[in-house]
Give the backbone structure.
Amino acid sequence: MEKEKNHSRPVEESDVKDNSRRDFLKKSALMTAVALTPVAAARAAEMHMDERLAQVFEKMPLHLEINGVAHNLMVEPRSTLLDILREQLDLTGTKKGCDMGQCGACTVHVDGHRVNSCLTLGIMVNGKKVTTIEGLAKGDQLHPMQEAFLKHDGFQCGYCTPGQIMSAVACVREGHANSEHEIREYMSGNICRCGAYPNIVNAIQEVKEGGMAI
Amino acid sequence: MENKIAKNPSATDGLSRVDGRLKVTGKAKYSAEYYTKGMVYAVLAGSTITSGSIKSIDTKKAESAPGVISVITYLNAPKVPGYQDTPAGAKGMLRIFYDEKIWFNGQPVAMVLADTFERAQFASGLIDVTYNKTPFETQLTKNLDKGVSPHNAKDYLRGQEEAYKTAAVKIEQEYLVPTNVHNPMELHAIIANWDGDDKVTVYDKTQGVVSTQRNIAQAFKLQPANVQVTAPFVGGAFGAALRTWPHEIAAVMAAKLLKKPVKLVLSRADMFTAVGYRPHTWQKIGLGATADGKLVGISHQATGQTSVYEDFTEGVVNISQLMYACPNVDTKYRLASLNVNTPTPMRGPGEATGAIALECGMDELAHALNIDPIELRLRNYADTDPLSGKPYSSKFLSDAYKMGADAIGWSKRHAQPGIVMENGWLSGYGMASGMFGAYRGAATVIARLLADGTLDVQTAVTDIGPGTGTFMTKVASDVMGIPAGNIRVKIGDSSLPPSPTQGGSAITSTVGSAVNDACVQLKQKLKELSGNVEGGSGGYAQILQQHNLPAVEVTVTSKGGPDMAKYAMFSWSVHFMKVLVHPTTGVVKVDKAVSVADCGTIVSQKTARSQIIGGTIMGTGMGLTEAVVIDHRYGRLVNNDFANYHVPVQADIPQCEALFVNKPDPYINPMGAKGMGEIATIGVAAALANAVFNATGKRVRDLPITPDKLV
Ligand code: FES
Ligand code: FES
């Protein structure tokens, strides 16, 4: 089970655009048949014609910058930013806890603001800058919030942690970390089932009181 | 309402998690996060009826949807050879895609396999199923009379039955604990990939790679060594990943059929029906005491729900046999089979539920006697195990009572309920104790010193969050005198020497001891080599270099000794709560929480503190917010998501204090350490209920204590 560098499925726009559009145009006569007879449909499926159709009609270009790296992708409009990050770009630091905007595990920054990436379709962030947990540290030097989480043990299993940290950084930047009460209120969108809440508050307070630019 | 508790000065003391850096940078990989070439995504489709059978199932539309590779149903599912081991009609784990029978709502009826997650999910909505419906029962309280006595939970009697009825002061009450769902933040997930016909690799969310290996080997009739299970990181579990669930078998089955790696990640809704939960349980308790507060009798009955296809029993009533010195105790435990999925142990299994009846009952009795609740417990303090008559290996619960009372400010509590106001809120204090068996099983550990002074410590155990690798590092560091930074721990891999499943609060004791023993032997071996030069990694490295050895290693199996049978071994806890209740809206706010654990030596201070606080918070959910709601007209869950099943969030939780008696248990293991995962939660919800009574004068005996029950 070796991990591959490149995914088997084409995701970069340049990989698919020219070929499939041309292919599609060539075979458009067959496409008409596809719609008409089940036998042709089955054959077309065997030839992966449905794939090609999908490539052309169901995918859209998406240009975005993730952790400072530009990506030009072809994505289905229904693909969430979360699934694009995790399944297409192997950025699995961003977690899926509910896939419906109820837990905060998928929190990332889009143009500096925290969002639930499971509630954000990829195409909604076209042209924007996305920061994920993988983009927070500067090389080996952890972000102060990551350091504070380590010091205060702001986690146990670690699954909610990337979302908590992304949310915590935004919470301080937004100016919503002025008291324990305020932190609790503004961090309530990030569930931690292991129950690291008090430690998370302590970590955020330390970063806030440290006054570092974050 | 800012919290006034001083921050525990020790909160940041001690070794930080050794895998913490991976966790805060997003590099820790959980089971769904391994990419393999040609991966196929699986999505489950569940039954929309609650009991009956599948009449027809049409998968054509789904199969012709873009990207769909296959749809598996009972009609075309490959045989799982191990399923034949259970005789027809016998109860047991749900056999997935086995036949047309439907036992509960949401039971998987099909699995769609496609080349992307989106396509699999879309196609899962295109399956047409028709059913033959049969009558069903999903309501525990309507089926209490159908409870049966399970063969592995016999009725218990010491002294006289129902002796409480003869006592000068008595209480008799019923309590209801609803279904709670573990809901770890990581969704259950598995990636399965076959290598030929007789070998399979899985990345799986499991609390025990060895048991998962055994279960998959049994199901598919493979050599266990040919089943590789990898789970270096587990995103919480709390009991939910103790078993190998049907969906795991389904993923392995699909990977075999397609000869491709298959990834199945449950949805949050699936997490309520595809894996187990803490079962809805009815309890009745009778407590009787003399006028000066000596217990005369305890009678405790419980009926818990289970599925119709499998019995799940837990020790709900055991705590009443064990907690107090009482001459007359009788307990009865019954199971009611309903059209629901099978429950499974959830943090503090049985005891957390039983403690609601016993510890709320003790509070009611204390009130009736007009004795302080701590004082009542001290008057009935057990100095030897009332069940076995054996001495305790160690018990300092009375110290814990005192520490907790001081920390919460118990002296400020008014015995008369409902009279203290604080800024327009009613204020009250409550306490309750917990206990759970302490245990030491067998584990095998490799300790290997490398020529550069690095120490490798390896065993198959998983870490669901408590910090297994961290305490292993701490134990190894203490024994060897090697700094933590020079120690590498490898866990969560079935190819490593065996360790038990992480559960039942036994891992620190079991694996910690094996690490201890392995390091002691390694040290001895190095000493012999060197002719007695003492430690430190520098010194050890020199020994290896002098002998021109790349490494010196030992593999040691270690298990509990004869003392295990001589002594009664338990971990103890007491939880103190201060709550504020809004008189008009009935909103309950936890103002202060103090939990004290008497679980022997604390090996790893920072992670231990977090584990106790985490348990307090889970218990708070049990007490105040968590309940599965079924629409009994349809037998269908109505709140299977985080918006409607309320686990505590940040705003619900104050600063929590975790304190430790921290006195070694001389008999359990070389470290003197006992488990704390369960006692962290057992008693918390009862303490909250008692605090709410103290604040309001209202007894809520039907959890969770939601505002509607207080106005
Ligand atoms: S996964 Fe996005 S909020 Fe839960
Ligand atoms: S650390 Fe496990 S859910 Fe937060």
Summary: The beta strands of chain A are 60-66, 69-75, 107-110, 113-116, 129-131.
